[in-house]
Predict the structure.
Amino acid sequence: MRRGAVIVAIAALALGLLAFVPWIADGYQLSLAIGILNYAVLATAWTLFSGPTRYVSLATVAFFGIGAYTVAVLGEVLAWPVVLLIALGTGSVVALVVGFATLRLSGVYFVIFTFGLAELIRQVVTWFEVNVTRTLGRYVFVDISQEQIYWQLLGLTALVFGAGYAIRRSRLGLALRVIGDDEVVARHLGIGTTAAKVALFTFSAGFMTLCGAIMAPRWTYIDPAIAFNPVVSFQVLIMALLGGAHRLYGPLLGVIPLTLLFEFLLARFPNHFSILIGLAFMAIVYAIPRGITGLVEQASARLRRGAAP
Amino acid sequence: MQRMSGLIRAASVAACLALAAGTASAQEPKSIKIGYAISKTGPNAGGANITQIPNYQMWVKEVNDKGGLMLKSIGKRVPIEVIEYDDRSNSEEAVRAVERLVTQDKVDLLFPPWGTGLNLAVGPVFNKYGYPQLAFSAVTDRAPELAKRWPNSFWFLGTSQMYVGALADLLAKQQKVGKINANVAMISIADGFGIDLSKAAREALPKAGMKLVYDKSYPIGTQDLSPLIAEAQRSGADTFVAFSYPPDTVALTDQAKVASFSPKVMFLGVGVGFPLYPGKFGANTEGVMSLGGLSKDNAGTAEYRKKHNAMHGRDPDYWGSQVGYASLQMLQQAVERVGKIDRPAIIKELQTGTFDTVLGKIKLEGNMPKDAFWVLGQWQNGFYTGVAPQRPGVAELIVPKPAWKP
Amino acid sequence: MILLEATLAGLVLGGMYALVALGLNLQYGVARIMNLAYGEGVIVAAFAAWWLYTAGGINPIFGLALILPAAFAVNWLIYRLALTPLVRRAKLREQLEVDSILATFGLLFVVQGLMLVAFGGAYYSYGFLSVPVVIADVTIAANRLLALGFALVLGLALYLALTRTRIGTAVRAVAVDPVAAGLVAIDVRQVAAASFALGGALVAAGGVLVSMFLTFNANIGVVFTMKALIVVIMGGVGNLLGCLVAGLILGLTETFVATWVDPGLTLAATYAIFLAILLVRPQGLFGRAAR
């Protein structure tokens, strides 16, 4: 119990300090911080569902895009909090429907299904815009500053971590861990596997949707190719897996170093970026098989052994 | 001691920057930093590699070969230093890269990214820091409005109405003399470019007395366009219009040839002016229309194409490339007339001055060029000739397009 | 008439999808490598064919004779050097799946980067066999028809090889249960390496054939990876006939929707069909029940 209090205190302190970033950072540094928070929210939300259940989802951008598109459609018409609520509602409803539909799938079938889902939504949005509204790109001239985007993302990060922490300590979290280990056993224990999985999928999707909605005003112009860019799904997956999906803080350990690595390589080697980032991915897979979290755990285990021989 | 000298260095760097920002000072900059973030990878790379990057490289090399940009304020030429990033065809990366160029690298000038979406994404950043944005690969209906909102932004390729209006005029003229019927079959790619142009066409064509008998869009990444060609063929239209992207433009030509579909007027989108198009279709390009164009008697563009070919081993395209190069020449002249890196003054000069470019004299109106370049062209005897707007050197449209040769 | 036209066009398009997916079926179905760099293989082969044709004047069909063995060798090396350590390390199938996703994601970038350095980002295209062939009054491009032919021949040949030969039986055994296959004296590693390499050679065949009619650049590999994944999953992992059928269904869907509904909905329709089939048959059309 005391350990829990310490963790909460440290997190609150970090959050308080991070809130001051916009006053000391220049435009680029703020931009970088926004990029990191964006992926921190997405990767952590991804892990909320995929970590315990071991379902690998490529639908991240489907929800992110729904959020962004809601802003594109309603951003200039309604008040900002209302827009966010509508985005959250839309994303959750889609997630609920999809969650119920996908339960029968397992392994790679689920992976590709979620990818197909994201692409289907993108195609349908495109078709609707082209044939019904007759405009494809939408202009988002919402009066929201970069600093405000940063603070909103920071708040969302706090929420997603808080939610993750709470879930892990709840009956739902325990149920999910059992499902991840062995779904048959879980069912025999009387766990409502369906309800648990759908609830978590929806929950995780809600965060992704909000993240997309908050990010949208940054780009002025949104079309389906921008909002539903599949690269986002893959990048979230890679960051979460490299960080380690079995811990709440794992994705963060993937997001920060990878974002910085991307920045460094893009700036220093713009013409050989692809080759170098590819080699870096491969090196990480071979050298750090259990993700960065694995390294951290190993180190802390060694420390503990050293302290109490 | 070392820290001391570090401090001094930092102070002198700050002084240099103050100078670069336009405040009067006796110190001389060693170089003028120009930065750009462009799509070297991802779906935009194909376009950026043909229309944009070669022009940047060529212009920088030419300026540096002369010793750099002439700055009157210090009375000498200052060489250009380039900082380039890859935006991976991604709005978020593009925004961040431009922020980085401005705030970290402290560049003196920026070049724009490729495409409508990315130019709009970075628009607020250019505007916030007051850098001129000479976009020459963006076609948007809201260009006039954007130029008002961001007075530092220039939209060289104009609006979709400009292109479609010219097309409608040409078609109406042919229809009145009875060379074609009034029916038009139109397809468009489901992306900003295709949608904007087809939307404008839906208004402009009926106004000009033409009738749309087939009007469909198709998604990016469609790998077989034969059903669309078949439907267009069945529609009985004499005019086939496709607002397409390069891979589709090639596929449509191929498929039309296979299906022996040779409409009297064949208008295709981006790609007809790419070097690979005449390379692949040879004499079969005859009569195909598209955006952009060239006039035979313009020595400027001819020389530009020769230089481009010498440096890159391939031709530039016939639309954005030459406009883009002209925009760089304008930037150069604006900087040299102002005589220092004073961005508000450079923007002012771009808005009001008259410039000598490969396209001839250009003066902007509302941050857009007017009748400064060929909006529409047609392959005629192996030369991609400008056919609209009506300006000196305009060629007569060839109708009907000759049948496909095997 | 229109029906016949749409059907033929759909079969030809579907043949192309099936052709591009056959190799992935071997790589994922047998060698258990979820190869995200798969589409890059298609593009590398397309560039090779383009280069042989434009620089050496070698027509792509003869080009196949050079490119296929080279692709086999390169893929065999990739498996032995880059992927065997992962296979050896993975205790569970899920672990290998995750590791291979990460490693081949890296490989994707490396291959793409090398192509960008070599060819830049510009579009490439050449014309070969772009001549009309008339079948029952319907005109089709010869090069597309050729791709369909190759898909059918390769698909059937592989199917027969897998079901009628001893080696084929060994390959299927590895696909079903690598551990048990090892117990009955099958050299699992060799079989897996050979399957991966053969898959790579099939990808190359697909790349060479589609390069005759598609315009490509260094960046579009991922389009083929995704199409192939969808075809493989829809048909059922490891099932070659399923792969053919799934490819043809997707092709037919696209042309039917383009002809009678709206060309704007073609891709939406293919994804919808794919999702619907998975919902009804979670293991794909011809897939075996879960592990």
Summary: Chain C has a mean pLDDT of 85. Chain C touches chain A through 47 residues (CB under 8 Å).
